[in-house]
Structures are given as C-alpha cells and as structure tokens.
C-alpha cells in the first residue's frame, strides 16, 4: 500500500523502464484510472448525507447498539461516491466489453430483450407468498418453460426450483437416493469420471455417497469397459457430463445407461454443456435419468461471481415421482397451479422434500423463456451448431502453436482444449493467460480439466462473430508463440493491466483483509475492524 497522497490517487504500478510506468502527475494512464479505497479519499468534514447527532436519549431495548459517536463512514460527497464506484466498475472486465472465453462456463451475450421482459412489473414485482390466483401469469411462465425443457430433453418431468447447476446435481442425487430407498435398497457409491466438473464429486460426497473415479480412454472419453467392470449392487449411480469437460461428446452414452440400469443404478448427466447439443440430441433418448440444465449458461442470462443462477433438473419416468416440492402442474383445462404440500392428497406424494423455500429463480425463468421464444426451436438448434463451429474454428486455427491433446479424437463440441506441452522451458499455461490480459482479453479457463497438464479450455460460444474470433485467435497465437520461443517479457505479464502479476498462492493463503494504510488527511482512518485475516 502506498502512502496517502492528497489527491487520493495512487501512482501507476509498473516496473522501472517499462512503458506502463512512465510517470504522470496523477498516477493515471489516460483513461486507465487508479482508484484508492473510499476511506483513503474521504475526510470526516465531508458527507453525502445528513445524519442525526448521536447523543439522543437512550432507546429502550437498543442496548449496546446505540451509536455513540460519528459513524465510521468514509467521508465522501455524492459525486465522489458515484465516481469512486464508477471508476472501480471500469476496472472490471465484462461480457459487454469483450469475449469471455472461459471453458465450462458458457459466458455468452445476454440479449437485452430478455432483460426488458424480466423487468416487466408483473414479473419483477411478484412476491412468492402472493395468493396463487394473483400470480397465474408467473406460473404460466414456469409451466411453459418446463414444457420447453421437457421437449428439448425428451424427459418426463422437470424440477424447476434448484437455484444453480450444483444445486440441481444435489436435487438429482436426492431423487436417486429416494428411488433406491423406495425400492428398499442401500447403495453407497457414486461413480464419477476423472474429467468431471468439481461440483460432481463434491455433490455426491455432500449427499452422503462415497465417490469413485471412472477412468478415461486415451481419447478423453469415459472408459465403458472400466465402468462396466465396477458396476454392482453397491453402485447408486454414475454422474457423467455430456458433452464432457474435454469438449467431447460421450458416444457410448446409450451403452453406459443400459449397463448402469441393468446393474440397478441410475444415470445422472451433468447438463451444463447442453448448449452444444440443444436441438440436436435429446438426453432422454440416451437413457439418462436426471440432468440439470444451467439456464444461466445454455439459455443466456448474466452470471458469474456466484449468481444468480438457475438449475432445473429434468427427470425420467423412474425418478419423476421423487422430485422436490413445490411443483407447477397443469389442471385438466391446462391452467397451471402449484403443488405445495407433501401429503397423500396431492398429486405428488413421494417427493423427497424441498430444495428451496419457493419456486426457484423467477427472473432467470423469464429470461430463459424469452431467449427460447425469441430463437424458436430452429434458432436453438442453430445455437448448438454455431457454438460447435466456433470452437472447432479456434481448435483448428491454434493446434499448430498449442498442444491439442484430443484434436485427433475428431471434432470438438462447444469448447477447445489445449495443453502446455511444447512451450519453452520454464513457460506455462499461466504465462499464456497473463499474456492474454495484456492483449485485452479475459483469459480462458486454465488448469481444468485436470486430465490435461496445464489445460487451457476455450469456449467461444455462438455469440462471437468470425471477426471477433479472428482477433482473439491472433492474440492467442501470438502469446503462444512468445511462450514457445521463451520470450522473457511474457514471464512478467500482465504489463498493462491495473495490477501486475500477483503471488497467487500468497494471495489465496494469506489474503490481506485488514487495511493497514495511512489514515486520511484529517486523521480519520479506516474502520478499525474490517474483518480478520
Ligand atoms: C457450471 C458447471 C457446473 C456448476 O453449475 P453452477 O450453476 O455453477 O452451480 C457443473 N458442471 C459443469 C460441467 C459446469 O460447467
């Protein structure tokens, strides 16, 4: 932390002699503005609001919560506050600024139409405890979205309430457990391939199962023979991602499902990558029993930073009876209504229980349905085709400069996987990711999946144009070539970002959560307790 300076700005960070550190009076670089912490800029003489004095008569019941002095607020005027947060927001990279090539995340353009629809007062202002007859329109949205999801997946039923992909996995596994319980069976193991998303084994463990790996073949797919050899009376089910996290379609899915069913287990499919096959393949036709759909990936809607998400779970005939409440159904006349109670009198007496207090993420439902209706069935099919085409374009245009371990296994699906073999001694995937930041791109997913050393997983999505992809590819190729040729300047990248390369281990293991800088000009320092270290 640099010493306080009266203007509130910090000098630009850079190494001596580098372009980035050419001094400016303000410490800023053109429109790249440095931003101090709010209490470094502030002073107690200033305030954006009028606050009452603290010395009022004690109020019964408030106890030690009565304020005794000035509140520990940064002393900022309203314009200073607005500029502070606006400046910080400009240091962020966002999907509206450029592509987010994160594999396994599906960061696509979010049509503004969806936002407009989700903000209609009739959707945005409904309350989950409103009487049913006042929210029939909202139920109609949920029911129509459910119809689309069942049609697109060829599945019997869908549980709408899970709030994210991982929550959907839990929902699916709880359905599987309820089904085994109903059959009077005790099964303790869930099989998960080595390449699975981290949430899969975590969910299985959370649901109380032992997790065992299934080996992959050299082409990056589930080893069917290894799987069959492990099946038996202790296997509750398997969790398979299709398309998988190596960006490949699991061609043996039908055979996998048949084998697992013959052994009395169920097949959970991680459907986070459904955008690669929507309109092309119906998971129900492959024999899958449960699959979550990340509405916030496949069907657009902004996500990141932990939310908001929505992870409805489509279910086979076998698992449908165990789905969580509440449940939107249609009556004989087609009108949607809510099944709320778990008792013999309802249409849904075998539910395993409840995943969420209410119906799920209404805003996400509305956005996803708007996306489906605006694309139509043929448009959704084209989403899958374009996503796959774009990923194969990236794969084929970069495979001569980056190791492409599964390029020989045929076309990839919606994401292209590279590894770090072939880079100069001492250079790694991390250097490529940091070099991309200087090029003005958010890096791709790195070091995942674990089956490839120094994995780089690029998902362009269908929403990037040919011109946009070419720009990204040229930058990626250039950075990859620097790493192959041992260009030392890459080792200290990024050079042009607001912050230079961090010691990431140190940052993760010993995050500095307490501000220890200089107090502001008038002696008012930081709030003394920002949190532990
Ligand atoms: C994103 C993702 C998940 C988890 O979904 P969340 O909505 O983040 O909980 C699970 N599996 C795969 C393959 C994913 O890409």
TrEMBL record:
Residues 185-304 form the Aminotransferase class V domain. It holds the Pfam family GcvP2_C. Keywords: Oxidoreductase, Pyridoxal phosphate. It catalyses: N(6)-[(R)-lipoyl]-L-lysyl-[glycine-cleavage complex H protein] + glycine + H(+) = N(6)-[(R)-S(8)-aminomethyldihydrolipoyl]-L-lysyl-[glycine-cleavage complex H protein] + CO2. Its EC number is 1.4.4.2. Residues 385-484 form the Glycine dehydrogenase C-terminal domain. SUPFAM superfamilies: PLP-dependent transferases. The keyword Oxidoreductase applies. Residues 1-23, 483-533 are annotated as: Disordered. GO terms for molecular function: glycine binding; glycine dehydrogenase (decarboxylating) activity; pyridoxal phosphate binding. It is an enzyme of class 1 (oxidoreductase). It comes from the Bacteria. GO terms for biological process: glycine decarboxylation via glycine cleavage system. One of its GO terms (cellular component) is cytosol. The glycine cleavage system catalyzes the degradation of glycine. The P protein binds the alpha-amino group of glycine through its pyridoxal phosphate cofactor; CO(2) is released and the remaining methylamine moiety is then transferred to the lipoamide cofactor of the H protein. This is glycine dehydrogenase (aminomethyl-transferring). It comes from Novosphingobium marinum.
């Amino acid at each position: 932390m640099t010493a306080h300076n009266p203007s509130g700005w910090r000098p630009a960070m850079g190494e001596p002699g580098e372009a980035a550190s050419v001094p400016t009076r303000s410490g800023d670089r053109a429109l790249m503005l440095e931003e101090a912490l709010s209490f470094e800029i502030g002073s107690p003489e200033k305030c954006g609001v009028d606050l009452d004095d603290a010395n009022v008569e004690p109020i019964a019941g408030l106890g030690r919560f009565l304020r005794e002095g000035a509140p520990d607020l940064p002393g900022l005027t309203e314009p200073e506050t607005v500029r502070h947060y606006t400046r910080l927001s400009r240091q962020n990279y966002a999907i509206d600024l450029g592509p987010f090539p994160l594999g396994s995340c599906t960061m696509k353009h979010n049509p503004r139409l969806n936002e407009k629809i989700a903000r209609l007062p009739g959707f945005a202002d409904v309350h989950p405890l409103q009487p049913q007859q006042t929210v029939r329109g909202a139920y109609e949205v949920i029911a129509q979205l459910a119809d689309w999801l069942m049609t697109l997946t060829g599945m019997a039923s869908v549980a709408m309430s899970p709030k994210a992909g991982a929550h959907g996995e839990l929902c699916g596994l709880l359905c599987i457990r309820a089904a085994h319980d109903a059959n009077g069976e005790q099964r303790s193991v869930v099989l998960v391939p080595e390449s699975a998303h981290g949430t899969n084994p975590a969910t299985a463990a959370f649901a109380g199962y032992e997790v065992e790996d299934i080996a992959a073949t050299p082409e990056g797919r589930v080893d069917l023979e290894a799987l069959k050899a492990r099946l038996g009376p202790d296997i509750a089910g398997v969790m398979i991602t299709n398309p998988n996290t190596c960006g490949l379609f699991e061609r043996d899915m039908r055979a996998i499902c048949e084998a697992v069913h013959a052994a009395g287990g169920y097949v959970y499919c991680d459907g986070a990558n459904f955008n690669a096959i929507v309109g092309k393949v119906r998971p129900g036709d492959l024999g899958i029993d449960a699959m979550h759909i990340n509405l916030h990936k496949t069907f657009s809607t902004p996500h990141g930073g932990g939310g908001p998400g929505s992870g409805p779970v489509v279910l086979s005939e076998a698992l449908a009876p165990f789905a969580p409440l509440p449940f939107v159904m249609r009556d004989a006349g087609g009108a949607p209504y809510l099944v709320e109670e778990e008792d013999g009198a309802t249409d849904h007496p075998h539910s395993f229980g409840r995943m969420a207090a209410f119906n799920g993420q209404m805003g996400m439902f509305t956005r996803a349905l708007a996306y489906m209706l605006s694309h139509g069935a043929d448009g959704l099919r084209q989403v899958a085709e374009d996503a796959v085409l774009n990923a194969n374009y990236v794969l084929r245009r970069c495979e001569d400069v980056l190791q492409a371990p599964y390029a020989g296994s045929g076309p990839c699906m919606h994401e292209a996987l590279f590894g770090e073999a072939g880079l100069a001694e001492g250079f790694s995937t991390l250097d490529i990711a940091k070099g991309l930041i200087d090029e003005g791109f958010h890096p791709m997913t790195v070091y995942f999946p674990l089956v490839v050393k120094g994995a780089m997983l690029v998902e362009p999505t269908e929403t990037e144009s040919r011109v946009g992809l070419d720009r990204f590819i040229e930058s990626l190729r250039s950075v990859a070539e620097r790493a192959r040729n041992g260009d030392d300047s890459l080792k200290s990248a990024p050079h042009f970002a607001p912050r230079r390369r961090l010691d990431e281990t140190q940052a993760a293991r010993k995050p500095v959560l307490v501000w220890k800088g200089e107090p502001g000009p008038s002696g008012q320092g930081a709030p003394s307790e920002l949190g532990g270290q």
